[in-house]
Amino acid sequence: MNIITKLFICLASVLFAASVIATPVDTYEFKTTENQQRALSLAHQLRCPQCQNQNLVDSNSPVAQDLRLEVYKMVDSGKSDPEIIDFMTSRYGDFVLYKPKLDSKTYVLWLGPFGLLVFGLLIGFIFIRRQRIQPSETVSLTPEQQAELDALLNKSKSK
């Protein structure tokens, strides 16, 4: 085989491998391109209830595919974004939202990081303040300890 044939086979193999890796595409026909963009935006905002941390677009699970189709149909039927989000949260809970609403159940989620930051800054401030306030103590040696230290130092100098 000549070099051109080998190069062609390598190139064809790479192109074939790239097509195998490609993710499946939804084939839903939207009424308008605005509906398509809105539906994709909503599907990116909603989390798959089955997957760990993937939105409806990134997930390939059957549940995500069904929910994606449901979102697409609701957008095409003219429902507003809040109506679709309310439908999904009433069915699957606040877990499907990447940005949960601020209410009594999610105060810890939203305010917890700020509380931990304030707590850490307070502990750091107290620690630094104590280090500055405490006077450095001078250690005085007894005459026997001083003599022993001098002997050790003289011994190490003579080596």
From TrEMBL:
Function: Possible subunit of a heme lyase.
Record carries keyword Acyltransferase: no
Protein name: Formate-dependent nitrite reductase complex subunit
Keywords: Heme, Iron, Membrane, Metal-binding, Signal, Transmembrane, Transmembrane helix
InterPro entries, sorted: C-type_cytochrome_biogenesis, CcmH/CycL/Ccl2/NrfF_N, CcmH/CycL/NrfF/Ccl2_sf, For-dep_Cytc_NO2Rdtase_NrfF
CDD domains in UniProt: CcmH_N
One Pfam family per UniProt: CcmH
Similarity field: Belongs to the CcmH/CycL/Ccl2/NrfF family.
Domain CcmH/CycL/Ccl2/NrfF N-terminal: 14-153
Keyword flag Heme: yes
Transmembrane segments: 107-128
Signal peptide interval: 1-22
Superkingdom in the source lineage: Bacteria
Family matches, as Gene3D superfamilies: Cytochrome C biogenesis protein
Organism: Shewanella inventionis
